[in-house]
Batch of 4 targets.
Target 1
Amino acid sequence: MLTVIHRDNTTQARSGFLKLPHGKVEIPAFMPVGTNGTVKAILHSALSEIGFNLILGNTYHLYLRPGMDVIERYQSLHRFSSWKGNILTDSGGYQIFSLAQFRKIREEGAEFRSHIDGSLHQLSPESAVDIQCTLNSDIQMQLDVCTAPGISEKEAAQAMELSSRWALRAKRRWMEKEDYRGVLFAIVQGNFFRNLREESAHQLVDMSLPGYAIGGLSVGEEPEVFKEFLHFTAPLLPDNKPKYVMGIGTPDYMLEAIEAGIDLFDCVHPTRAARNGSCFTPDGMLNLRNARFQNDTSPLVENCPCPACRLYSRGYLRHLFTAREILGTLLATHHNLQFVYSLIQNARTAISKGSFSPFKKDFLARFGTQLHE
């Protein structure tokens, strides 16, 4: 599944590709988030034109709407949404975690109330696998227990142990699926306790699953804490398996993850920022709603191949946002995803030359970072 072609000279960064049912995916790779079977404000054809071949869908949301009876008629989320590339689906653990007042976690699984109509539902490690097989996910995630910063070590240990038991149950169900070609990833938990992170990784690695994710990061902790636990946890995972950090989408966090040897990451940030008129540039984020851009005839970013930069000025884009025209959101979304794709593409080139560290340093010197040495 994983082929590593290049390794950086001074960091753990690596490049290569994943071989998945719907084609190869170059790594490192950012996955645009398509929670409801669509990446907001951009056509799937545009995502393919940029170069993306792996996007993310969400089990929790798709299970509730449109429902698995609808997806079954189409035989896959790919056909339902007319996406020809690969899809990774999150199990819904994070969404259930976010519904703290509406859910109960038990040994058998999670009981929760729909955010749509308040109806009661149950999700087990086995049913999460079943749902993701119905979606025909190319990569599916185990159901896990996500925890917030600040809980006690005892609470974190209980959640971590339950996640490990759920991973084993998920593996057993996944192995029963003879006609399913997708792969199952386990998720390392343990909150912000090194001993628990280490124990979680050891338990999951012993299960010998196709890939591993680092969960429970970028959930509100300080940037320095994220960096510490990223670099502590990543080496605990097998070198011959894909490594995935969930929920990171700013350039500084993505480059830090690549430096640690991470292959995959996802986040709503690039598309959500675009809908608010905030765009990536080499010199940091640019807020198109700012009055100083009213008469600015320059493009968002020189030589950027996206339609926002090729065809329009900053002044026109600002006009679209102040007038609340939908085109502004469409163009900004395309731009931000193009920017992120190009950034990762340039990172892969730097890895192939053994020069990732100076590339990262030079980029962040202009763009800025929350993470510090």
Note: The first helix runs from residue 44 to 50.
Target 2
Amino acid sequence: MSAADGNWKITINTPMGAQEVTATITTSGDTFTGQTAGRMGDAAISGKVDGDTLSWTTDITQPMPMTLDFSATVSGDAMTGNVKLGAFGNAPLSGVRV
């Protein structure tokens, strides 16, 4: 079991305000799968694990269609990272284990 496995509450500080997402993450070697749920919709996620860092992309349709590129580092019960918001720059993310 990886440090990232479990349930997370992630806050993304976007230019349009904070967006909260819940995520369930299950790692397997150098990859992971999971599920996210929030105001922007529910999505299955999968990505890469590199040490304590997770990376994945998610396509959203609300508030407008774009691809979000996530990178998050897990340290104990906390997660910090960055989200590339398509053409809209970057947004910091933080998470806590729930």
Note: Residues 57 and 69 are 4 Å apart (CA to CA).
Target 3
Amino acid sequence: MKIKMVDLKSQYFKIKAEVDAGIQEVINNTQFIKGPQIKVFEENLAQYLNVKHVIACANGTDALQIAMMALDLKPGDEIILPVFTYVATAEVIALLGLTPVMIDVEPDTFCIDVNLIESKITSKTKAIVPVHLFGQCANMNEIMSIANKHHLFVIEDTAQALGASFELAQDDNSVKRKAGTIGTIGTTSFFPSKNLGCYGDGGALMTNDDELAKKIRMICNHGQSVQYVHDVIGVNSRLDSIQAAILNVKLPHLNSYETARNEAANWYDELLGNHPNIIIPKRNLQSTHVFHQYTITLRQAEGDRNWRDEIRKQLADRNIPSMIYYPIELHKQKAFEKFNTNNDHFPVSEMLCNTVLSLPIHTEMNREMVAYICNNLLEIINNTTN
């Protein structure tokens, strides 16, 4: 059985006629940059997310950088973020001369541990960047409470959780809000393997603040709102028309994609959930999960990388791919060692880097595929622990 981490080809063939027509329309009108498809997509995504403004840009990393530029953060300002995340979250902080302040994560949801945030807040702290990792939201109720108390911005990194909903407390009630629409600014990525992915690079920012939206749009376009009139320092970060056309086709399928991923995740839970050496992903009751990744934690000798590597090797021998997100803790990456001035340790993240394993999950999976993966994984684990 041929198993893929993400099966974009099969997904494409299901919507081929629509995608091809959208691409052909762009080619026919030759408006490859700033074509009408961009505005249509921004409006469609804003409606889907129930947010006032969506501003498309070139990629998810740009989105994070532009968000921080729009908030007028200055060199030396401190930004709190989880230590267990993709490098882009910290990369743009350092790139702008800001100071990344790393926080450990929860061992079961993999999201930032809100109980540790206030201990890291200083007079220089200006923002919190929660990462909605692997497909579900961080605890935005606590994060927004802390941010409001200390007058901090919140930039949601929603690259892996677009479409997830969170039960946000409001007075004595709660209201469902989409990931990326709760904080000051939300950011996302349309990298091809994302739940809503284009066929190249792409990203977007979301906000309910009219003035921020205006400024973000200017920054994306060289700092200009009128051609050749530059009011702020900006960048050149644009989603091209072909990618917007593809995203316009795929957006109406996003809910069904989420359903398919959850179905696959439920099969995994059923088949793996009772094994003593496997911890299945926890569902945060306040958040839906869109399962960008299905990530298990392996229990063996407090995190034996060699054992995990042997499992991966034997899975690969049986044509089953797997991935490790992330193998090296952020504070141990050479580029970021200098920011860990207190030589802090992050025990949960260090444990996760030794024990997490992501299994194939995508919109085209069926129960037979999941059973094949699970049966082989369980056999390998049982053979290597006996």
Note: The chain has a mean pLDDT of 96.
Target 4
Amino acid sequence: MHTYSVALRISGTDLDLAEVSDALRLEPTQTRVIGQPRDSSTFVWPESMWEYEVRPGESKAFWDSLEDGLQTLIAAFSSRKRELWDYKQRYKVFLWCGDFSSSFGGGPTLSPQVLKALADFGVELMLETYASDE
């Protein structure tokens, strides 16, 4: 079985997290500050990151369909294209998708309509796969 996490991320060494929230009129679901420790290790974050994750519902953290998650995220930013374009000129802006799999094989299927919407959205898509017990 596969489940998915879908988020838009903006990262950079001089990224002002409060400015991004104000410009996009959204509260981030996760932030990272350059130089901040990663978990309990001695490693630190090499750049700051602002993230906005979309979820299928208040009680559900993961999407059963990557396509549904991507459509929801694209819709959430449809009125913010100009702001994203401005950030793309100075920072790395991308869609981060986690694919959590409890078995080998399978994976997401994307329709031509979603592929076109992604191309029109104009940011990179990063798909990371993780083994999951659930």
Note: The longest strand covers residues 2-12.
